[in-house]
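Example 3.2
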Amino acid sequence: MIGDLAVHWQLALFVFGAGVILVAGSRLAVLADRLADQTGLGEALVGAVVLGAATSLSGSITSVVTAWNGYPSLSFSNAVGGIAVQTLFLVAADAFYRRANLEHAAVSLANIMSGVILVVLLAIIMGATLGPDIAIWNIHPVSIIVPAGYLVGLRLVREAREAPMWSPYETDATHHDDEDEENTSHSLRSTLVVGLIVLTAVGAAGWLVAETGSALSQSLGMSETVVGGLFTSTVTSLPELVTTIAAVRHRALQLAVGGIIGGNAFDTLFTAAADVAYRDGSIYHAITRSDQMLVAVAIAVTGVLLLGLLRRQRSGLGGVGFEGWMIVLIYAAGVAAIVTANGGL
């Protein structure tokens, strides 16, 4: 239906879906911070699990719908491209916190472990694209391994928070996850109800972006990797951008970092879900070399972010540390390589 519309209407619907995601997503950070205090789970864990999953809803729907519609490269690149661009968004949020770099102020063992788990899951996905084309009922075994690895990782993160065997060096710029009295003044029920309404809006907008993204790929003659890796992944990642900046401005720093890293780890599940939805075999062997480049970029920027969390540079150029600028450089180089390989925009 959407594919039958004129290109300008397809673009209008795409922009409308982006707007809904942007507006609804801006509420998620406040709700997640409130939930962290109301449940006692802490910012880092709620950011990694609840906020990460909530902000990733539109992206997951986009990947599943496009895979079901027979666009494997668009589906895969949307998932992995979202991981790369969301890490870039953390650099943008860093510029809003002037006291110290986020890597210095918001360091926590839970966030570091989430980042390590993300690198492992991405490496497994990369291995699936390079290994033999195996599919059982059209599903690759890695699509079972990745969700299992994610769940094991969540358990390790929870154990690290409850009984940490490592702790960061305290400075006067280290931010603590302290309870906010304003958050506990609201009822948990109201938080959950409002959250469900917001998630419904984000999910519906994600479906609209998926449908219009697929149509635009055909109408404009653009490669699926460029549309998914640059456009739909950026649009469906807008909740991460607004929630991260909102969390930083709300001084929920561990929530901001945890939301990005945890959301990225959750995004690896997109590939597994997309593989199930794709009915023509293993999605890992229906993608292009440019999609594999996106995986490499995602691994590289995550590794640099982990380096920043461990190195903990206190200040940097424009309020962004050395690792932040390296993330920008790696992402820009990756985008340039992908666009060049696909004959430009």
